[in-house]
């Protein structure tokens, strides 16, 4: 390049230099305007993704305009054709490489923003790696085309090889794509408490490229293939909220004053909500009578827990306190009672009662 321009004066070199400097200045101005406009727009909405785009593009704008200035500068007759072509190819490769890097950063940033709670998890890593690999492969193909290196045979070979690999790894790929579906659909996340239709339940410990690990309350790990998980009927106790209703069935004697029963039961339930860890203090418990049973009037007490495992301590404390309070108030919790009449006995049932002729053991 020095030999090509040594016969020219510095005045002749001023033109390409001014083109490069002008392009850099334009890039700086556009970067400044872009930051002002986008930051002002970002402050008006709560969408975090725009911050990702701003942070990635704010430095690349100047670099891209610098590349544009170099590309235009070498078009002057000061440079030999082969040098011009070489510099332009280098500029195009730098542009494709930087654009690929921008796409990777924006893509991974948007994924992390979309699921900020999963930061650093294996589930997030799957999607991030797929974005990086895909963008890198596309960028390399474009660079090879710029260098006039034929890529059709490589793509054909890759397609045949990919078909063979996909057939051999059919189950693995099924689990991989099922894992991606689970992640993108937000069906479950690490930390959620779930129950499968087959009965297994526990906290989701990890979602990796092949399976999902569920930690039971007994601290055992259940490994479920992702493809199996997507075909299960699944209950997520943390979606849409961690709080859940805690239902406790109670029965009292027919001789009980139901107004008193309701008042006492709600007082005990409110006490539990306020004092027991895992209760929801601002929730107002209530009861609903629902059945005239054989020997008791049944009703359900509705309390609320902060998450699934809190219900066990809430039920434990509520039953203890309710039993003690019922004893204090004279409210009877009846046990099963059955009256049997012997037809050979001198005692006869009331005339108004008609009894079936059941055999009696002697």
Architecture overview:
- By secondary structure, the protein is of the alpha+beta class.
- α3 (49-73) packs antiparallel against α4, α4 packs antiparallel against α5 and α9 (258-275) crosses α10 (310-329).
- Mean pLDDT is 79; it is low at 1-6 and 351-362.
- A five-stranded antiparallel β-sheet has the order 4-3-2-1-5. Strands 6-8-7 form a three-stranded antiparallel β-sheet.
- The protein has three domains: 2-167; 179-236, SH3 type barrels; 244-329, Alpha-Beta Plaits (2-Layer Sandwich).
- A hairpin with a 4-residue loop joins β7 (286-292) and β8 (297-305).
- The protein has ten helices and eight strands.
Quickly list its features:
362 residues; alpha+beta; SH3 type barrels; Alpha-Beta Plaits; 3 domains; 5-stranded antiparallel beta sheet; 14% strand; elongated
Concise structural overview:
The chain has 362 residues and is of the alpha+beta class. 55% of the residues lie in helices and 14% in strands. The chain contains 10 helices and 8 strands.
Q: Radius of gyration, Cα only, in angstroms?
A: 37 Å
- Tell the overall outline: elongated
Low-confidence sequence ranges? 1-6, 351-362
Outline the biggest β-sheet: 5 strands, antiparallel
Beta-strand percentage? 5-15%
* Helix-strand string: HHHHHHHEEEEHEEHEEH
* Helix and strand composition category: alpha+beta
Tally of extended strands? 8
How are the elements arranged and paired?
Elements: H1 2-5, H2 10-43, H3 49-73, H4 81-114, H5 122-146, H6 152-168, H7 170-185, E1 193-196, E2 201-207, E3 211-215, E4 221-225, H8 226-230, E5 234-236, E6 244-252, H9 258-275, E7 286-292, E8 297-305, H10 310-329
Antiparallel strand pairs: 1-2, 1-5, 2-3, 3-4, 6-8, 7-8
């Amino acid at each position: 390049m020095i030999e090509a321009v040594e016969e020219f004066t510095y005045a002749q070199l001023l033109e390409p230099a001014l083109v490069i400097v002008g392009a850099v200045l334009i890039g700086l101005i556009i970067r400044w305007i872009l930051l002002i406009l986008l930051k002002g727009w970002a402050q008006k909405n709560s969408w975090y993704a725009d911050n990702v785009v701003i942070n990635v593009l704010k430095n690349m704008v100047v670099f891209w305009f610098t590349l544009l200035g170099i590309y235009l500068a070498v078009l002057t007759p000061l440079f030999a054709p082969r040098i011009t072509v070489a510099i332009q190819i280098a500029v195009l490769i730098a542009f494709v490489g930087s654009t690929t890097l921008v796409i990777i950063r924006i893509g991974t940033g948007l994924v992390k923003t979309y699921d900020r709670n999963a930061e650093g998890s294996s589930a997030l890593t799957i999607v991030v790696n797929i974005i990086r690999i895909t963008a890198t492969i596309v960028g390399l193909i474009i660079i090879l085309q710029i260098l006039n290196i034929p890529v059709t045979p490589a793509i054909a070979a890759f397609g045949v090889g990919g078909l063979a690999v996909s057939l051999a790894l059919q189950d693995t790929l099924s689990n991989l794509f099922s894992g991606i579906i689970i992640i993108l659909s937000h069906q479950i996340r690490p930390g959620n408490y779930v129950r499968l239709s087959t009965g297994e339940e526990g906290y989701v410990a990890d979602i990796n490229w092949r399976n999902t690990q569920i930690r039971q309350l007994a601290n055992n790990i259940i490994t479920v293939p992702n493809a199996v998980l997507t075909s299960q009927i699944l209950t997520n106790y943390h979606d849409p909220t961690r709080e859940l209703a805690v239902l406790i069935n109670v029965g009292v004697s027919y001789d009980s004053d139901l107004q008193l029963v309701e008042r006492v039961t709600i007082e005990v339930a409110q006490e539990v909500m306020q004092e027991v860890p895992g209760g929801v203090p601002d929730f107002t418990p209530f009861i609903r009578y629902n059945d005239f049973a054989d020997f008791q009037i049944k009703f359900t007490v509705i309390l609320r827990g902060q998450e699934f495992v809190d219900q066990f301590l809430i039920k434990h404390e509520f039953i203890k306190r309710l039993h003690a309070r019922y004893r204090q108030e004279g409210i009877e919790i009846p046990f099963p009672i059955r009256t049997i009449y012997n037809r050979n006995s001198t005692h006869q049932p009331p005339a108004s009662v008609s009894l079936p002729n059941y055999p009696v053991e002697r």
